[in-house]
Amino acid sequence: ARGAVMALSPSAAGGFTASGLSVRKSEEIADLIDLFSKTQYRAKEVTPRVEAIEKCCLELFARDYKYSIINNSNGEVCGHYPRQIVFLEYECTDVEKDRFESTVHISKLQDLVNRSKLARCRGRFVCPVILYNGKHICRSSTLAGWGELYGRTGYNYIFSGGSDDTWTESEEVPEDDSAVRNGDSQLFDKVRGHDIKLLRYLSVRYICDLMVENKKVKFGLNVTSSEKVDKAQRYADFTLLSVPYPGCEFFKDYKDRDYTAEGLVFNWNQDYVDAPLTIPLCFTQNLNIDWTQYQSWDLVKQTQNYLKLLLHIINSDDESGLLVHCISGWDRTPLFVSLLRLSLWADGVVHASLEPIFFFCFNFLKHIISEKFSAVKKPRYVPPFMLLNFMFYTSDISLRDRGSVTSLSSEFSLITEEGGGATSLTNDTVDLLFSQSQASSWSRQVRLEAVREIFLAAYSSTVGLRSSVQSPSGAISGLLEQFARGVGLRGTNAIV
């Protein structure tokens, strides 16, 4: 159910105990990973297993948000988005109490979605997926080019709303393409006009394009396009950022290097790579990053700097939202959307009631534990129950400048035993152990480390972490070695 998981993103429910994650929840996560690693999600081919996942996701959203549903019951809007697409209206732990009236009406939104779906590759329209300080962070694919629009089933697709599943790379465009191109402007005015209306309705101002090319070319044809090269400048009122980032093909090299991203640099000299890095000065001058060196960055540094940029964008404007997309919206897009979600969640500003179980970006989390990636810059108070919740699970995680959580666990154990239980741990006691800023930094690190640990344990027992190139010594290396040290999994059944 990869499509449902990517679009809905929060995880299976928590289930912590003093000794760690419950066995039942660990099994559920492993089962979910096994499913989406083997099954391609299609909205019109839903099983009871997928229905259960969708129900769980809706329940998790309801813990923190009042939401409405964009209907996609049979995949008629997009065959690879969930049947029930969540639109987050506002943060509210009591969903029965309408404290605010949303500025977006779901019927109007549904209509805009239906009209705009043809504007983007494979019908993956602009979809709001994270609500942060009242602003929508959205995902989508890139703009459809004339080859995409006409290549599916010709003009009939445009006017009949044909199935997205009819598109294949082997299909041909009309032979008299010059006549088709002459009619492009009017058609693009219409479909891209609907796309722009949807962006404006969601108050999206910033568009980050992760494509390494200006247009996707297949068989010599411009199959897809991008806002940054729209000849009619239809997207001129938006702030466009071209932040080229390698796609899933490059991550084969990551796997071949035993999942080690340090030192792995993309080859920017390939013929198809023609999109320059273009970022408005207002976003570059405050980040202390030398963007001219981006082609020399390894995968770690590039991902870190792009994430800093995205966080800076969503904090720079109190009114406007953000769209992130690549070509198909199916590899780089969920990578950065999920990193944003996890980073904001670690700050306690989205999905506040969810515990540390999410599905993506598990290994990279070790690179964003610093407060440099925090969206909340002022010290925050961390309630005692949260500190205890993190502490009980993360007994093997090392913390900078404070020793290990194991030692902290002993300190807390003495306090709670003498005081008669965890409920007697007062705010004053916590303040004696940590300053607010220390607790804030510590909690962010522990939350992200916990996610990584949980996911790796489940992933290694299902999909496995086998590298394409085996180490000459036969020893676990790279990510596998780090994981084995971190969580003590060295048995043959744990890591393949």
From TrEMBL:
InterPro entries: MTMR14 (IPR039802), MTMR14_PH-GRAM (IPR039803), Prot-tyrosine_phosphatase-like (IPR029021), Tyr_Pase_AS (IPR016130). Gene3D superfamilies: Protein tyrosine phosphatase superfamily. CDD domains: PH-GRAM_MTMR14. One of its GO terms (molecular function) is phosphatidylinositol-3-phosphate phosphatase activity. This is Myotubularin related protein 14.
